[in-house]
User: Which sequence fits this backbone?
């Protein structure tokens, strides 16, 4: 494992270099001072997602959802709860598939909610359907080392 990790800021998308030992201390962005590991899952659009996939040295779990999707709205608080349990090992984000429709075909999304775990720019695993916090955490732990 490298000592310094590249972490994209969820607020301004600046690429930060953070010593691995400092991750648990909740580092902030060098450019805009936002939390690099916010408590709540952060919103992405496709351009932002691309930067995270390109730059990030830690895994990113993305919840693909939409407002009209009841199970997605039901899952949101559980996704947020799972995020708190997995920080700072994995960051959690949300992407509105209605606002950003090109992601649907790009990631071959056939139904939502859908969570996709990315690491080093690649899809590691995906799970369709609403999942509770415990289910999300144990699923992520199957795919993330350490
Ligand atoms: Zn920033």
Assistant:
């Amino acid at each position: 494992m490298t000592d310094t990790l590249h972490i994209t800021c969820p607020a301004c998308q600046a690429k930060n270099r953070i010593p691995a030992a400092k991750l648990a201390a909740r580092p902030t962005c060098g450019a805009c001072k936002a939390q690099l590991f916010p408590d709540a899952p952060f919103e992405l659009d496709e351009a932002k997602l691309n930067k995270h996939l390109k730059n990030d040295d830690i895994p990113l779990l993305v919840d693909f959802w939409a407002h009209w999707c009841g199970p997605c709205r039901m899952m949101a608080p559980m996704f947020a709860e799972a995020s708190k349990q997995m920080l700072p090992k994995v960051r959690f984000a949300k992407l509105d598939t209605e606002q950003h429709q090109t992601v649907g075909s790009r990631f071959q999304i056939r139904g939502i909610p859908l969570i996709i775990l990315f690491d080093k720019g690649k899809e590691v695993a995906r799970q369709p359907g609403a999942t509770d916090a415990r289910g999300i955490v144990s699923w992520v732990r199957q795919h993330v080392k350490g």
Q: What stands out?
A: Strands lie at 4-8, 15-19, 42-44, 60-65, 91-96, 114-119, 122-128. The longest helix spans residues 70-86. The domain at 38-143 is CATH 3.40.30.10 (Glutaredoxin). The chain has one domain: 38-143.
